[in-house]
Design a protein that fits this description.
The protein has 102 residues and is mainly beta. It has one domain: Immunoglobulins (Immunoglobulin-like, Sandwich). The chain is built from no helices and 6 strands. The strands form 2 sheets. Strands 1-2-5 form a 3-stranded antiparallel beta sheet, with no helix packed on it. A 3-stranded antiparallel beta sheet has the order 4-3-6, with no helix packed on it. It starts with 15 loop residues before the first strand and ends with a strand.
């Protein structure tokens, strides 16, 4: 009886990471706005979605997802935000909650 060979390979998958986060400008007056950026890389071989949260001064202010093509690094704009109402130094974070295939 003739036979054939079937080769099974892994499905392409994303491998997304947040490389860095920056704000512009880096110093503002209370209540002024600033823009949040993150550099993202996808070392995988498939387009994927990065599920994220934005945390300012320890409080989650939003969640969402962005599509990330293989390669990079790519810089994403995570929007304009209002600075806290009290002077001080505050952490501004884009945290990865997960990733999934696009």
């Amino acid at each position: 009886m003739p036979c054939a060979t079937l080769t099974v390979v892994e499905r392409p998958a994303p491998n997304i990471s947040i490389v860095s986060v920056r704000v512009n400008p880096t110093s503002v007056y209370t209540g002024d706005s600033f823009t949040l950026y993150a550099t993202v890389q996808n070392a995988g071989n498939a387009r994927g979605y990065l599920d994220y949260e934005v945390v300012i001064a320890g409080s989650r202010v939003t969640t969402g997802s962005v599509a990330v093509d293989p390669g990079g690094p790519y810089e994403y704009n995570f929007g304009s935000w209002t600075a806290p109402s009290s002077p001080g130094s505050y952490s501004v974070c884009v945290n990865m909650l997960g990733q999934r295939v696009a």
